[in-house]
């Protein structure tokens, strides 16, 4: 990273927000309610203090809270997966958020704001986290009192999703949840939000669109 870039950023915090696994009702036990991997990763000492914001759920269920946002409502993305199955999972998540009419996610072949990917969980098949999003943002630039995002990368953990028998629709819901984090949204206290910390069968709903409208107003 060159000095000019470092100077512009001043400090970047890298944060993570994961989605906990929830087992379907017909599978006995293992409804894991463990909260998100709130592990902070400091990219460089020069970038200042690392800060974790994962797992935060505050306020009203009717308005999904936001902790960050992008500069513009036009946001670029790239699907970084060789699997046509997962490309389709991510495409459906992109479509869902675009349907809100608030943000306009546009595919790019160049450097994207948001990267959408899949991998196996480093915690193994039985990990409690089925998706995760890393993001970085400016610490000296805000819009509507929200730090402006620099980059985000979301993952669906395919080994965990398979282990807990997630259907394709349920994996798409996980993808929607992670993309919600990549757009700056936090967890909603209510189960009817896709941003509920352990959602499985919920997709983008009114509180989520309200939250997006509020942060991108
Ligand atoms: Zn989450």
From TrEMBL:
Coiled-coil segments on the chain, per record: none
Domain Peptidase metallopeptidase: from-to ranges: 66-215
Gene3D superfamilies cross-referenced by the UniProt entry: Collagenase (Catalytic Domain)
Lineage: superkingdom: Bacteria
One Pfam match: Peptidase_M10
Extent of the signal sequence: 1-28
Keywords: Hydrolase, Metal-binding, Metalloprotease, Protease, Signal, Zinc
MF (Gene Ontology): metallopeptidase activity
UniProt xrefs under InterPro entries: MetalloPept_cat_dom_sf, Pept_M10_metallopeptidase, Peptidase_Metallo
Keyword set includes Glycoprotein: no
Keyword Protein biosynthesis attributed: no
Annotated protein name in UniProt: Matrixin family metalloprotease
Species annotation: Secundilactobacillus angelensis
